[in-house]
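If you are new to this repository, start here. Below is one unmodified record pulled from the training split, so you can see the exact layout before writing a loader.
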Amino acid sequence: MIMKLLLLFMAAILMAGCELGMDGDQQAREVAENWADAYFNCDFKDAGNYVTQESQKWLQYAASNTTEQELKLLQEAGGATVAASDRFDVANDTLRLVTLTVNNILTIQHQTPTITMEGTFKVAVVKRDASWQVRMAGLPQNEKQSHD
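And here is the target side for that same chain:
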């Protein structure tokens, strides 16, 4: 009887431990979503917590080119919202290519800030020193660009 209780207790601990730890897919998806939520809401300081060191220059560039008028427009629209796909275009031990759907995107068209209702972005998330980080090779590009 004691042996059965001990085995049951050990099994419960093992199962709880498995649920608490996130796998690489979950971690990469969470980092991508957290970064995108901060980035697309123009919180570039917070977005910096989720990117590689060499990506910081792109956040600085975006921050230096964002005006108060643009921030006000984004705020009036209710801010950006983000959702990550459950699937990855690329997935290996050190890289996940995460597809993000973003709503209420601040865009500049003909030097006029506007809100684009929805866009799709591919974000590279890399594993460095046991943590996942977004690697920016430039500013994010909307794959649902209108071709007018």
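Two things worth knowing about this chain: The beta strands are 81-91, 95-109, 112-128, 131-135. The chain has a mean pLDDT of 87.
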